[in-house]
Design a protein that fits this description.
single chain, mainly alpha
Amino acid sequence: EFGAAGNDHEVVEQERAAMGVSPNAPFDLYYPDGIQRDRERTRKAMAIISRHPFWYAGTVVHRMAAVMKYAGAPSGIYGSAGINVTSSKCLPTRWQGGMLAVLVNGLGMFQSVLRYILLPLMVFGLILAFRLDWRITGLISATVFYYWVVGSMMHTHIRYGLPMHALLTIFAGLAARRLKEFAVSRKLSAFTDTTVS
């Protein structure tokens, strides 16, 4: 869109044509004159963003949503944090029908359930963490903010967000622990009520 290249290969080919470099000459993203060419790319990108700010904002929001996709099919070039194991993906053909295959497929099913509840647990855990200690939570969240927001403003793939996902899983763990404590206290309360009466 707007004359912008969609990937590194297209950038290289656009620049090769613009500079009149022959197809068999050594030429990549950073050779020759990588710094000057990168500055020119930045200038072009900023010009496109300033002319089409709403398109750019929509692109950033789409990237932010894509890197937080834990379940379902991968989202385009961004990948997915939610690809489950199955016997057909992980085991040699001769092992895909035995007990090990049943265990691997069972693990994949458990992953499916976990992936659908992970994001709500992360949000709930973040709320709990801010209530418990907003300073530490803010410090941890700064890394999440960088990968999720700043990274999405530039360029993102699922691999760039792995540190963010690791930190968010801590908050999901806090939420799971709090829900377990709540369930145990309710069970104890119900048990106490029945024994007293």
